[in-house]
């Protein structure tokens, strides 16, 4: 796997290097082609200059020594250099159209075309005029200035005189005349330009065409510059793309390595978990089998100990003896009094000291023991055999003398009366718990209340005081388990009265919480306002069919409408 990874990395590196070399070769090819084109042009120029012997050093001086080298070597912006080269190109282009310098008209048109061709570069509209026209214009301007000076002198001389009524009117007339003359000058100039355009339409068209070509050429140059910039950006984007591809491949390898380690670890954990579960299952099954075997052995021993036939059962358990009628308790506890001793008078016996107390009687348990079986000769008597007496409750006691027996309960009650309370005692069963909700919901409520870890008064106090004892999660849990209006209706009380059993703990909690909250809500301000509103409504409804109302009746649905309280009550 490592060898494959190394091979893949080396292959990707080799591919990237090949791409870089290919790009470099393409760039060198383009640059070589450009250089070859430039060399061809220079060779043509040099060849043409060499044909005219004297022009060769002048051409070399223009191209290399002074002109173009100075322009290219200037420390200015690249755009300014490009504009200067464009101006030189336009000048050479217009100069190539000249045939001679003797005709002033051709020179004038040459300069005019050159100015028009470079106007989009310089951004200025220059006006070229012939020399004779300029002299004529200067003379006209001089004459106009002289006339203005004379008029001003006349006005200055007239100011020394007292002002008359025609002073401001004459000044206004001068201004009007100057404005009219200016308008006439502008009209004459426009007519002159129109006449010149009619005389030389072809030249104007050529100028416009050259201007358009120059504009298109500038657009083409800007497009080429933008294409070059975009090519540079494209190359940078390709390099970034190659770097990103390498990063993606590296991340893929890292993810594959991490995933392989994770899957191997998960398989190991799964095998260990299965082995652990198998061992625990085997141990559990072994323990259960041992318990079952022990139970089977105990059952077999008990089964063998039991009698299998009726004869064995009768031999092992003989029939009980017939019951005998018990003697009264008084005859058992009170023996007959012994006669007084001989020689002792009755008076002496009555006046002498009392005899010592007799020994304590045997415990009552011995009295309740069954009597011995009757002799065999009494079994044939035809008297009915009474049922055996019930077993009395065994108690301990102290011996008492015969003189004090008559003052006890034993003298007035029989043994059956003493045995009756103990036999009639019934062990009361534990009362079962009854829930008024569904058992599943009651269990959910119980689990929720155990998680809150607050007693019943604490929950009620937290709900009433709106303190921080109950968190937001606790309030959400309580809100999810709130009882519905049907559960708060009278059916719950009817069920409680019907069964008469204690309520399940969650029901008790909710009953206490709701009851206390309802009692605390009664004296609140919204409740008092509602009561006052009801009483005021009853007073206003005296003339209607509701006029007999003297109060209000609290209902659950009406109480639930009190939104500010957020409590439930019955």
Automatic annotation (TrEMBL):
- Per its UniProt record, what InterPro entries does this chain match? FH2_Formin_sf
Q: Where is the composition biased (Pro residues)?
A: 317-326, 352-377
Which key words are in the record?
A: Coiled coil
Q: Where is the composition biased (Polar residues)?
A: 399-426
| Coiled-coil parts of chain | 135-198
User: Region annotation Disordered: residue ranges?
Assistant: 303-426
Q: Where is the composition biased (Basic and acidic residues)?
A: 303-315
Name used for this protein in its record:
FH2 domain-containing protein
The source organism is Armillaria novae-zelandiae
């Amino acid at each position: 796997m490592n060898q494959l990874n190394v091979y893949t990395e080396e292959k990707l590196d080799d591919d990237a290097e090949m791409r870089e070399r290919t790009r470099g070769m393409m760039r060198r090819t383009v640059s070589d082609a450009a250089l070859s084109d430039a060399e061809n042009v220079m060779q043509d120029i040099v060849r043409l200059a060499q044909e005219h012997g004297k022009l060769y050093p002048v051409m070399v001086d223009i191209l290399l020594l002074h002109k173009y080298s100075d322009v290219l070597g200037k420390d200015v912006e690249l755009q300014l250099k490009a504009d200067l080269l464009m101006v030189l190109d336009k000048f050479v282009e217009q100069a190539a159209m000249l045939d001679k310098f003797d005709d002033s008209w051709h020179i004038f048109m040459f300069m005019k075309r050159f100015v028009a061709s470079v106007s989009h570069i310089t951004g200025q509209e220059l006006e070229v005029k012939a020399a004779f026209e300029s002299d004529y214009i200067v003379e006209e301007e001089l004459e106009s200035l002289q006339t203005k000076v004379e008029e001003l002198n006349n006005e200055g001389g007239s100011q020394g005189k007292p002002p008359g009524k025609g002073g401001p009117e004459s000044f206004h007339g001068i201004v009007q005349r100057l404005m009219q003359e200016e308008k006439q000058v502008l009209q004459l100039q426009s007519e002159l330009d129109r006449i010149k355009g009619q005389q030389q339409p072809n030249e104007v068209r050529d100028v416009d065409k050259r201007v358009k070509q120059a504009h298109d050429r500038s657009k083409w140059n800007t497009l080429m510059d933008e294409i070059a910039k975009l090519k540079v950006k494209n190359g940078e984007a390709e390099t970034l793309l190659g770097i990103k591809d390498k990063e993606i491949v590296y991340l893929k390898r890292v993810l594959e390595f991490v995933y392989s380690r994770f899957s191997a670890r998960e398989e190991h954990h799964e095998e260990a978990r299965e082995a652990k579960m198998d061992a625990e299952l085997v141990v559990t099954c072994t323990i259960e089998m041992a318990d079952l075997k022990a139970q089977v052995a105990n059952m077999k021993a008990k089964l063998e100990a039991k009698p299998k036939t009726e004869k064995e059962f009768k031999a092992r358990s003989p029939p009980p003896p017939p019951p005998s009628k018990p003697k009264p308790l008084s005859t058992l506890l009170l023996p007959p009094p012994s006669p007084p001793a001989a020689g002792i008078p009755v008076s002496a016996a009555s006046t002498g000291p009392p005899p010592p107390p007799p020994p304590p009687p045997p415990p009552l348990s011995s009295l309740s023991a069954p009597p011995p079986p009757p002799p065999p000769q009494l079994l044939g008597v035809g008297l009915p055999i009474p049922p055996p007496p019930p077993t009395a409750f065994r108690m301990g006691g102290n011996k008492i003398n015969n003189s004090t027996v008559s003052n006890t309960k034993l003298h007035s009650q029989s043994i059956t009366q003493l045995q009756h309370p103990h036999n009639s005692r019934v062990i009361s069963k534990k009362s079962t718990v009854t829930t008024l909700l569904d058992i599943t919901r009651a269990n959910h409520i119980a689990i929720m209340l155990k998680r809150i870890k607050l007693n019943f008064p604490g929950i009620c106090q937290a709900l009433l005081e709106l303190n921080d004892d109950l968190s937001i999660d606790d309030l959400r849990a309580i809100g999810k388990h709130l009882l519905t209006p049907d559960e708060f209706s009278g059916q719950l009380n009817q069920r409680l009265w019907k069964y008469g059993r204690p309520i399940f703990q969650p029901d008790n909690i909710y009953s206490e919480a709701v009851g206390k909250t309802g009692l605390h809500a009664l004296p609140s301000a919204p409740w008092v306002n509602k009561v006052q509103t009801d009483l005021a409504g009853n007073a206003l409804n005296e003339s209607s069919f509701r006029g007999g109302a003297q109060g209000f009746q609290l209902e659950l649905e009406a109480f639930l409408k009190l939104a500010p309280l957020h409590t439930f009550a019955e």
